[in-house]
Write a structure and sequence with these properties.
Length: 212
């Protein structure tokens, strides 16, 4: 499960010096999840307490090679490609960078984007899930819809087209076997689903079509 990303002991000697192996594996794993789920991870990231993210601040600073409080593509390449490791390719580094750019205006990676990618390294609990859900359910309906997510994040800023994200929403509600409304228990289930389940649903929706 990507939210519990770990690194086999056999791979520890291949990691970039200075960066924790589990941090690198989370960056890799983040590329493989849907853009919709990435947005939901970003929402949860805003609910994390300082003690839940303290260990990640230092990891972010290692990647912020320019000291600007942001991660640039050139900085990410410097750390992942120029640190004596052959484990990363140029294409892979660029994919990692783009996977954290969920908004069109972002030419660099900010702290909350990094947190979304590293959510697996945080002790996310029920409080975080509830706060994130309530932030989406601004009208206190007891459920969230696709429009709630888009309205919060801003459709004009998203990297993916709204229609494409709506298809991904269909994949998520299929997991819950419900209509286009997602209740709190469904939201938690979506955030805890593993990558294999998500990939299977996306392939099935492409083959059958999802009507929202």
């Amino acid at each position: 499960k990507w939210l519990r990303a770990t690194t086999p002991d056999s791979e520890l000697d291949r990691n970039i010096p200075g960066l924790r192996p589990n941090v690198l594996e989370s960056l890799r794993a983040f590329r493989g999840i849907s853009d919709l789920r990435k947005l939901l991870c970003e929402v949860i990231g805003f609910t994390l307490l300082p003690e839940q993210i303290a260990s990640l601040r230092r990891e972010f600073e290692k990647l912020d090679v320019e000291g600007t409080g942001e991660i640039t593509l050139s900085g990410l390449k410097k750390i992942l490609l120029e640190s004596g490791s052959s484990d990363f390719t140029l294409d892979e580094v660029e994919e990692i960078f783009d996977s954290m750019r969920l908004h069109k205006e972002n030419l660099t990676i900010h702290w909350h984007h990094f947190l979304a990618a590293e959510l697996s390294q945080c002790a996310v609990d029920e409080r975080n899930h509830r706060l994130a859900f309530d932030r989406l359910d601004i009208e206190k309906k007891g459920y969230i819809t696709f429009d709630d997510v888009i309205n919060l994040m801003g459709p004009e800023t998203l990297m993916r087209r709204e229609s494409s994200l709506k298809e991904l929403w269909g994949d998520s509600v299929q997991l819950c076997r419900r209509s286009s409304r997602i209740q709190y228990s469904d939201f938690v289930k979506i955030m805890k689903q593993d990558d294999d389940t998500e990939g299977m649903l996306m392939q099935q929706s492409e083959a059958e079509g999802i009507v929202i």
